[in-house]
Amino acid sequence: MVSRRRFLSLLAASMSAPRVAFAQPETRKVALYANVGADLTHYDVDVAGAALIKRATVTLPAGVQYAWPHVSRRYLYVATSSSASGYGPAGTEHHVTALRIDPASGALTKHGEAIRLPTRPIHMTTDIPSENILVAFNNPSALRAYRINPDLTPGDEVKQPARSTPASSRIRCASRLTTRWRFW
């Protein structure tokens, strides 16, 4: 007789590797996005052949600093800046741009207009439901929230109350979530 432990192990193995059990080919596509300066390029990843296949390039307003996906995985928010990294010359063009991700191919297309940022962004994320974009800056040190519009384009800044200390920032957004970031 098969023990309960053995039965559950066999059941879990058959569920976790059905393609191996039925010898089905892997059909899942993997996309990779890489940038050089303001050009963000989409590559298909051929896992079996260990190769990258270059597809298309989207040119953004300035050099890519950071990118973060929308919770739906159908949009990618990209922070760009014309500033050099580190102690290089300060630029004047700083933006967040929304890109739509084609679910079938992974191709990127611009979605709406980019919003301007005050200085070079060094980090970006969204809140949990992707209703706001949170952008961190280092010169001067700041953290700002920008609404995500109903059409999923970046929107206006969410004005924040005055902060008592620069080492700790609390961001309040309409989604009733409070995010706390510390700068050391």
Structural commentary:
This protein is mainly beta and 184 residues long. It has a domain at 64-182. The protein contains 2 helices and 14 strands; from the N terminus they run ααββββββββββββββ. Strands 4, 5, 6, 7 and 8 form a 5-stranded antiparallel β-sheet that branches. Strands 9-10-11-12 form a 4-stranded antiparallel β-sheet, with no helix packed on it. It has a 3-stranded antiparallel β-sheet with strand order 1-2-3, with no helix packed on it. The chain starts with a helix and ends with a strand.
The helix count comes to: 2
Instruction: Round the mean pLDDT to the nearest integer and report it.
Output: 81
What's the number of extended β-strand segments? 14
* Percentage beta strand: over 45%
Task: Assign the structural class, choosing from mainly alpha, mainly beta, alpha/beta, alpha+beta, or little secondary structure.
Answer: mainly beta
Overall, the morphology is: globular
Rg, rounded, reads 21 Å
Q: Helical proportion?
A: under 10%
Order of helices and strands: HHEEEEEEEEEEEEEE
Poorly predicted regions are 14-19
Summarize the structure.
Helices cover 10% and strands 47% of the residues. It has 184 residues and is mostly beta strands.
Blueprint of the fold:
Layout: H1 4-16, H2 18-22, E1 31-36, E2 39-46, E3 51-59, E4 63-69, E5 75-81, E6 94-101, E7 108-110, E8 115-116, E9 121-126, E10 132-138, E11 141-148, E12 154-158, E13 168-172, E14 178-182
Antiparallel strand pairs: 1-2, 2-3, 4-5, 5-6, 6-7, 6-8, 9-10, 10-11, 11-12, 13-14
